[in-house]
């Protein structure tokens, strides 16, 4: 419990950076160098981002859930759309593992021989806090849905109907951008970026809907790369 409180306090402090950095706007590109506009109003406010993220995630559960699943490594695939500083994203984070502990679901024991897909699907909103040197911090608020699917039911001769679990997600993502290419036209400037990222999330998930012995909270962190495409108005 104390560990969870510590992580929650860390997330709250990290997201409070929003109050301290409102004077920064998005780092725009000028002559292939990052230029920071420190005014609250961006002189060219119309820009649009589309990004693809690829990486890996590590999930750490509370005691009872950890005794069943262990700590999980998962893939990270996500898409992001952003207009100015407000963004929306969806992430798909699948993993497959064998349960460490046998639990009984509707009379069917799920043993270590079961191959269990644990699929986290996230929908979230972000706000970008942009800094010099191509750094960006994105506080994140959203919803996490976790589905459990046994993929070798035929081999086991069993059938499992497992409930999904949903809950609130709070987190932050730190990114470092590099410009790859700029195409300048009369009306728009198109920019391509490469980035590396590190993320940390805490989720309040009602795992008790899956099994009454499971705990409801977990946290995860991840690392990876992304490719971004940006259209910026030249008005």
Quote the CATH topology: Porin
Strand content: over 45%
Structural class label:
mainly beta
Largest sheet: number of strands, sense, barrel closure: 8 strands, antiparallel, barrel
Trace the largest sheet across and list its strands. Answer: 3-4-5-8-10-11-12-13
Q: Helix content range of the residues, please?
A: 10-25%
Question: Which regions have little confidence, pLDDT < 50, spanning 5+ residues?
Answer: 1-11, 13-45
User: What number of structural domains do the residues give?
Assistant: 1
N-to-C CA distance: 53 Å
Q: Please name the CATH architecture.
A: Beta Barrel
* Average residue-wise pLDDT: 81
Please, how many helices? 4
How many whole angstroms does the radius of gyration measure? 21 Å
Series of secondary-structure elements, N-terminal to C-terminal = HHEEEHEEEEEEEHEEE
CATH class: Mainly Beta
Number of strands: 13
Give the overall shape: elongated
